[in-house]
Every structure is written in structure tokens, then in C-alpha cells.
Design a protein that fits this description.
The complex is a heterodimer of chains A (about 425) and B (about 250). Chain A has about 425 residues and is an alpha+beta fold. Helix content of chain A is about 55%, strand content about 20%. Chain A folds into two domains: about 5-55 and about 270-420, no CATH class; about 60-240, no CATH class. Chain A has 13 helices and twelve strands. A six-stranded mixed beta barrel of chain A has the order 3-4-9-6-8-7. In chain A, strand 7 (about 170-180) and strand 8 (about 185-200) form a beta hairpin. Chain A is elongated. Residues about 370-375 of chain A have low confidence and may be disordered. Chain B has about 250 residues and is α/β, with parallel strands linked by helices. In chain B, about 35% of the residues lie in helices and about 25% in strands. Chain B contains eight helices and ten strands. In chain B, helix 4 (about 120-130) packs parallel to helix 6. The radius of gyration of chain B is 18 Å and the shape is globular. Classes of the chains: A alpha+beta (about 425), B alpha/beta (about 250). The interface of A and B includes residues 2, 9, 314, 322 and 323 of A.
Chain lengths: ~425, ~250
């Protein structure tokens, strides 16, 4: 019997039992849809993270912090000072070191007020550290020190991205910082002039500029926040050689008697990627279980089908059909179910991934991360040809495995017994 | 799958014209069944020879072993003892695949028609041709021609549920003829058909035997139907008890 005839015979049989076979197809489709949508979102999330970190982090930059990103080590009360940068700049391979301090302040601009991070930095060094993102879209970043100057992220200027602007270059911006002086609560404030608005960054970052940061000169910050303690020190090296980066990181740790932590952004990125990959694998495994359940469903309906069509099998054998052709006919039926299920599942999964990406998964993650990172996250689901082909292959493998036993049983039936079956 | 070894089944067709070898030979044929745990002797030592072009009727009450004998001749079942030869080929020596090839050269017509409900008349007749790997256009042509021969020209696209009993049996006969079989095995072909239609059907079968030379082996318990045959054998308790030739 020709392969095409076997397939069309199986297809014809499937068409006669629409409800039952549609349910089996849906079973497979749900499993495949889960695989497709989860992998697509996972891929999209990975892409987004990669993009964000590429923009927000430089591969030749180190971040020194006393607070640490490690959850397991006890917090140190060691303090770094702004002028510690001089010692770091003395190390080999270090191009520049820039201290940074930041406080949550009430920022008033025009008729609007926001609770934002006000970051004290050295404008020039910062611009060298982040040449792609610390760039003025309007106005200019002042080169000469000036107490009253402020640079704002694009998100403060245009927070709703709908053409409603909070203020313009030259406008007043009032910074209010609330602190304690003994038992008293004290509110300090000062007026600054907006000298530059940054270009839209659209990325999250550790240390680097974001769309919702307010930047003031480090000298002004020192005076206003009444401290010389630096929160982080950014260090730029003259190389992105991993070995040298690790070596310099070690030297810096020793410089501070191991009381500080050196974060290597590229290592952080790798760590995050690893976590994402394992989450993806876990989700894929869950999705695969649902496909195995669908496989059991296929086996179930194929066993029923074979029982119902025992007489037909007898007829086919009386007409001289070979055992292996009987096997192929019933195997073809499970494969058709698997294939149709895969196609339906791919369509469903794609829709689901797009819908989830469109309506909020990104925003949801952004909100849950907003303590640390701020920025708008957009996850574009990634459905690759490989993903589609793999899903189809997986569905076919599952339907083969679970269709084989029923088909084998059909092929082994004795012609007389099958013909006599009522 | 069309290129399995050109085995004994091929020789069957080739030696078809050699009339010195009988078409079917049964030698000391025995078949036991287990009914639950009780062995039942369905056939006890049957000897029979059927020649090319014969029309044999097998008569006997139910339980006499008629169907068992037909199943053994049709290579649907294996004997407990004894030999079934078709064109000199001993079926007991063949494996499942070779038996399937033998069945491709046998036309079966059953009492309950045994048509596949979802296939229309043309598809039913095409089925054995499709099993042999014959091309779509060729088998379509052949199926339509055969349906015309059995008088179902206007029923080609009808499914079994839309056909009368007599029409269904004609489809079954057309299907049985599709492979140009060496012989037809008919298991009470008129058993479920009214007597008027049965008469027409028997005329068709008889004509196929006389004009086309198709060998017929038919089970019946109806003496009037058996009269169409050129030879009658009577079975009782698994043995041939009487033989009548015209």
C-alpha cells in the first residue's frame, strides 16, 4: 500500500469521529501551546534582559558597593568616601573612578512632584563612563561646576510619553530631602535649574543613568546631604579582558580590606541569564508533562478506535493487507492527530505569547522590580523556526510513542477473530 | 511495500493456467477450537479437491464446520492438522506476510457484507487495489467498471447505509472481484437478502462463473440457492457426508 493512501485512509477515518478526535487534537494543542508560549516569552525575556543590560552596563566597568548584592552575607557598616576614588585611580588598568551618592527626594518641577532618586555624580566622568546613555537631548550637560545645576532623565521631562511635559530647559526644579536631626524631622530643600534633559534610555541599569534619575553635581550632593560617604564607586578599566577585570576587582577588594563588594556587570549578566535559562527549562518541562498527558489521551482513543474497528481490521486483512500496513494505518491516525494538534498548538501558543507580551507581562515585571530598576520593559515574544519545528517534532514523537502500542495490537489481530468480532 | 519477495503467492497466479494442478486441495484437514476450556472438533479429516472453473456449494446445518472450512481455504485461519493447498502451494508452510499475499488473490463475500461504513461503493471496491499499491486513476477506472458489471452504475458514490441489502452484496462482490482473484469464497451471500433479490444476485454469481470462468465456493443452507452450483457437498459434524454433482 502506498504511503499517501495510508495517510488518506487514516485521515478519512479521523474525519468520521470529529468530536472524539478534536478532543485528542485539543489535548496535544494545549501542550504545544504551553511549550510555544512559555518558550517564546522566555526567549523574549532573555532578549529584553540582554538588550537592557547591554545598554545599561559596559563590559569594562566595575561597580564598588558596601551594601552588596549578595543576599547571604551580613551587611557591613564599612563606609567608602568620595575621595577614595584617588586611591582606586592609582591602580593599574584603571582609567577613571567616579563616586556616586544617592538619596530619595521629593522633586518638584512645574506643577508636578515626584519621589525620585537624586544622584550626585561627577558629570564629566559620568559622561565618559556612559557615553551612550548620559547624553543630552535638550540643553547641554554643564562642563563647569555649578551648584544650582540639574540634569534630568527623559522620563521626568515626559513621564507619560503622551506629549504632556513637566518642564523645560531653564525651568526651576525644587529638591526636598527629609532627614533626621536627633529626634527632629528636618526638611531641607533647594532650587536648581534644569540645564539638560537626557535622551530616552528605555533600559534598566545598576549604577548607570535611567530615565527617572535626577543628577546633581557630587559637590552639591556632598554639601546638601551633609556627608562625604559614597554609596557606590564606578570604575572604568582600559580593557574588557575578563582575566584583568577579575584581577583588578580583587585588588580593589584588598585595597578596602575586603570590606566592600566589587560587582562585575558582565558576570552579573551571565548569572541572570543562567537563572532565566533554568526558569525557561523548568517551564518547558512543565509544558512537556502536559504533552505527555495528551499522549496518554491519544493512546486511549486509539485503543477505543481499534476496538470499534476490529471488524474493519479483519476486512482489511481478508483483502490481503499486510500486518505492517495495518500498523502503519493506525500509527498514521495518531500521527495525524499529533500533527494537527501541533499546528493548532503553535497558532494558539503564538497568540497567547503575543497577548501576554502585549498586555502587561513586561509591565508586571517592571513593577515588581521597580524598587531596584526603573524603566519601561517591553517583552517581544520570540517564536523561531527552530521552536516551531521542535514542537512539531516533539508532538510527532509523543504521538508515535503512544500510538505504537494500539497500532501494534491492531496489526497482531488474527483475521478470523477480527472478522467474527461483534 | 510492493517489493516484498516474489514468493509463492506469485507462483499461484503464474500457474493459474496449468490445469493439471487442482485449484484447491484439502488433505485430512482438521481444526479444533477451544470453547472456553472445552475443545471442539470443528473439522475432522476433510479431503476435498476443487478444480478451476468449478461452482461448489457447501451445505450443512450450523455448527457443521462450513465456515471453519471456508476460513481455512481463505487463509484466514490455520488448520490444527492436515494440509490446504492452493494451486499446489501448501498454506501451512507460509508466514503471515505470504498468507496476506495469498489473500490478495482470493475474493471474499460475507453474509453480513462486511463493507466499511465510511467508504462509498467506489472506495470499497478500490480498497483491495489500494492495498496492492495500484495507482489512484487506475483503480478508480477499474472500480467503476466493476460496479457497472454488478449493476450499480448509479450507486457509485453511495455509502453502505444508503444501499439496500442486495446492493451492498453487489458492492461486496465487485470488491471481491477487484483483485482478479483465483476464486471467490461466498459465505451465505444471500443470507440477509429477500428471496427476489437473492435470485438476481445468484444469477449474477452464476454468470460470473459461467461467462468469466471465476471459480466459486459458496456456503449456504438453502437448497434452492445451492442448485446454482455445479457440485454440492454436505457437511455434518466436521465431515463430508454427501457429495452431489450435476
Amino acid at each position: 500500500m502506498k504511503l499517501l493512501d495510508i495517510i488518506s485512509f487514516g485521515f478519512n477515518a479521523i474525519r468520521r469521529k470529529k468530536v472524539r478526535n478534536s478532543l485528542a487534537i485539543m489535548g496535544v494543542a494545549i501542550g504545544i501551546a504551553a511549550i510555544i508560549s512559555l518558550s517564546a516569552l522566555g526567549g523574549g525575556f532573555q532578549d529584553m534582559v540582554d538588550l537592557q543590560f547591554q545598554r545599561g552596563f559596559s563590559s569594562d566597568t566595575l561597580i564598588i558597593t558596601t551594601r552588596g548584592i549578595d543576599f547571604f552575607l551580613p551587611e557591613s557598616d564599612f563606609e567608602m568616601y568620595i575621595n577614595d576614588t584617588d586611591a582606586i585611580e592609582g591602580l593599574e588598568h584603571v582609567q577613571r573612578a567616579s563616586a556616586q551618592m544617592q538619596r530619595a527626594c521629593l522633586v518638584e518641577i512645574g506643577n508636578y512632584s515626584f519621589q525620585l532618586n537624586v544622584i550626585g555624580i561627577d558629570y564629566q566622568k559620568y559622561a565618559q563612563l556612559y557615553p551612550d546613555t548620559f547624553v543630552a537631548a535638550n540643553g547641554t550637560i554643564p562642563a563647569v561646576f555649578d551648584n544650582e545645576t540639574v540634569v534630568i532623565g527623559n522620563g521626568i521631562y515626559n513621564p507619560w510619553t503622551n506629549g504632556t511635559f513637566t518642564g523645560f530647559i531653564g525651568d526651576n526644579l525644587n529638591v526636598t530631602w527629609i532627614t533626621r536631626n536627633g529626634t527632629f524631622i528636618k526638611a531641607k530643600s533647594y532650587n536648581a535649574t534644569v540645564d539638560a534633559i537626557l535622551e530616552r534610555i528605555g533600559a534598566i541599569s545598576i549604577g548607570g543613568p535611567t530615565d527617572s534619575s535626577v543628577f546633581i553635581p557630587i559637590e552639591q550632593a556632598e554639601e546638601f546631604f551633609e556627608t562625604s560617604v559614597a554609596d557606590i564607586i564606578l570604575v572604568q578599566l582600559d580593557t574588557d579582558d575578563e582575566e584583568i577585570i577579575n584581577q583588578v576587582a580583587r585588588e580593589i577588594e584588598l585595597l578596602f580590606s575586603e570590606q566592600i563588594q566589587v560587582v562585575i556587570p558582565s558576570a552579573l549578566l551571565n548569572a541572570i541569564s543562567t537563572i532565566i535559562v533554568s526558569i525557561e527549562l523548568f517551564l518547558a518541562a512543565v509544558a512537556m508533562i502536559s504533552l505527555v498527558v495528551a499522549g496518554v489521551g491519544i493512546m486511549n482513543i486509539m485503543l477505543t478506535t481499534i476496538l470499534e474497528r476490529t471488524r474493519e481490521i479483519g476486512i482489511l486483512k481478508s483483502l490481503g493487507m499486510q500486518n505492517h500496513a495495518v500498523l502503519l494505518i493506525f500509527l498514521a491516525e495518531s500521527l495525524i492527530i499529533g500533527f494537527l494538534g501541533a499546528l493548532t498548538g503553535i497558532a494558539l501558543g503564538w497568540l497567547l505569547a503575543v497577548a501576554l507580551g502585549e498586555f502587561g507581562i513586561g509591565d508586571f515585571i517592571a513593577q515588581s522590580l521597580s524598587g531596584t530598576f526603573v524603566g519601561q520593559l517591553v517583552i517581544m515574544p520570540v517564536v523561531t523556526t527552530t521552536l516551531i519545528l521542535n514542537s512539531i517534532a516533539f508532538a510527532l514523537v509523543v504521538s508515535t510513542i503512544f500510538g505504537l502500542y494500539p497500532a501494534w495490537r491492531a496489526s497482531r489481530l488474527k483475521p478470523v477473530d477480527a472478522l467474527r468480532y461483534e | 511495500m510492493d517489493v516484498i519477495n516474489i514468493s509463492k503467492s506469485e507462483q499461484v497466479t503464474q500457474s493459474n493456467s496449468a490445469n493439471d494442478i487442482p485449484l484447491i486441495e484439502l488433505e485430512n484437514l482438521e481444526k479444533q477450537y477451544l470453547m472456553g476450556n472445552v475443545p471442539v472438533d470443528a473439522l475432522c479429516g476433510v479431503n476435498l479437491t476443487v478444480n478451476h472453473g468449478e461452482f461448489l456449494a457447501i451445505l450443512g446445518p450450523s455448527g457443521s464446520g462450513k465456515s471453519t472450512m471456508l476460513n481455512l481455504i481463505g487463509a484466514l485461519d490455520k488448520p490444527s492438522k492436515g494440509v490446504v493447498k492452493i494451486d499446489g502451494v501448501n498454506l501451512t508452510t507460509l508466514n503471515n506476510s505470504q498468507l496476506a499475499r495469498i489473500r490478495q488473490r482470493i475474493g471474499f463475500v460475507f453474509q453480513f457484507f462486511n463493507l466499511i461504513p465510511r467508504l462509498n461503493a467506489r472506495e470499497s471496491v478500490e480498497l483491495p487495489l489500494s492495498i496492492q499499491g495500484i495507482s489512484r486513476s487506475e483503480r478508480r477506472k477499474k472500480a467503476e467498471h466493476l460496479l457497472e458489471t454488478v449493476g450499480l452504475k448509479d450507486r457509485i458514490e453511495h455509502k453502505p447505509a444508503e444501499l439496500s441489502g442486495g446492493e451492498r452484496q453487489r458492492v461486496a462482490i465487485a470488491r471481491a472481484l477487484a483483485n482478479e482473484p483465483n476464486f471467490l469464497l461466498l459465505d451465505e451471500p444471500t443470507g440477509k437478502i429477500d428471496s427476489k433479490t437473492a435470485k438476481d444476485l445468484m444469477t449474477l454469481i452464476s454468470n460470473l462463473n459461467k461467462e468469466e470462468g471465476v471459480t466459486m465456493i459458496m456456503i449456504t443452507h438453502d437448497e434452492r440457492i445451492a442448485k446454482y452450483a455445479s457440485r454440492q457437498i454436505h457437511l455434518l459434524d466436521g465431515k463430508i457426508v454427501k457429495e452431489v454433482s450435476k
